[in-house]
Amino acid sequence: MKVFVSSPAGVRVYCEVQEGQSWTVFLARHHQTPNENFTRSWQDHKKGFGDPEGEHWLGNENLHTLTGGETRYRLRVEATNLQGEQRYGEWRVFRVAPEDNRYRLTVEQYNSSSTLGDGLNYHNGESFTTVDRDHDTWSAGNCAVHHGGGGWWGWRWGWRWGCGLVNPTGPLHLSDLHQDPWKVMSWVFFIPGDGHWVKLSSVKMMVKS
Ligand SMILES: [Ca+2]
């Protein structure tokens, strides 16, 4: 595996090459000093922020430009828990709608040979929500305010699950103490079929056609 930075369409992106195939990273989270703040405005999430070689969000507009056309894109997620165990998941369909459709998420066709569970399935079809733009289906509040970060959240699973099952943009805490798991970077179904919230030490989300 090797990594490099390229610039299609004039945007600096971080790519990873795995088995000869290049993946464009749109979310990178890991310990760095200082850590990037992911609880930000609609505009920031639209344009993207952070350093492509460090923690960053590529931006919803770039994500839509990349994945919103005729070409089908795949998604790969790599996540590491606080104990250093790394798992990966792949989905064969990943698409982000235009801004006038609130950057709605399509994520389908989970690859069942993945070692990371399909917590994202529960976010399929949701609009993007930030602290200043509440597009989630929770009428009593804003999931970005409640969970931290920005994301495709809903409330359709009732009281038990709240805003969703993954929070890859939540605040990063390497200590396991005193933090509600849904208010930090976390993933339910870290182990396929296991519905516990698992706090994460790093996450990468990437796409390729
Ligand atoms: Ca709401």
Strand and helix map with partners:
Elements: E1 2-6, E2 13-18, E3 21-29, H1 42-47, E4 49-50, E5 56-57, H2 60-67, E6 74-81, E7 86-96, E8 105-110, E9 128-129, H3 143-147, E10 151-152, E11 166-167, E12 186-188, E13 197-208
Antiparallel strand pairs: 1-2, 2-3, 3-5, 3-13, 4-5, 6-7, 6-13, 7-8, 9-10, 11-12, 12-13
Bound molecules: calcium ion.
Residues 134, 136, 138, 141-142 line the site of calcium ion (CA).
What does this structure look like?
- Strands 1, 2, 3, 4, 5, 6, 7, 8, 11, 12 and 13 form an eleven-stranded antiparallel beta sheet that branches. Strands 9-10 form a two-stranded antiparallel ribbon.
- It has three helices and 13 strands; from the N terminus they run βββαββαββββαββββ.
- It has one domain: Gamma Fibrinogen, Chain A, domain 1, CATH 3.90.215.
- It has helices at 42-47, 60-67, 143-147, and strands at 2-6, 13-18, 21-29, 49-50, 56-57, 74-81, 86-96, 105-110, 128-129, 151-152, 166-167, 186-188, 197-208.
- It starts with a strand and ends with a strand.
- The chain is mainly beta.
- Calcium ion binds at residues 134, 136, 138, 141-142.
Short description:
InterPro entries: Fibrinogen-like_C, Fibrinogen_a/b/g_C_1, Fibrinogen_a/b/g_C_dom, Fibrinogen_C-term_domain. It contains three helices and 13 strands. It has 209 residues and is mainly beta.
Q: Which ligands accompany this protein?
A: calcium ion
Please report the total strand number as a whole number.
13
Query: What kind of assembly state do the chains in view correspond to?
Result: single chain
Terminus-to-terminus distance = 18 Å
The number of helical runs is 3
Q: Considering the protein shown, what is the CATH homologous superfamily?
A: Gamma Fibrinogen, chain A, domain 1
Fraction of helical residues: under 10%
InterPro entries: Fibrinogen-like_C (IPR036056), Fibrinogen_a/b/g_C_1 (IPR014716), Fibrinogen_a/b/g_C_dom (IPR002181), Fibrinogen_C-term_domain (IPR050373)
Protein name: Ficolin-1-like 7
Pfam family, one: Fibrinogen_C
Domain Fibrinogen C-terminal: 1-209
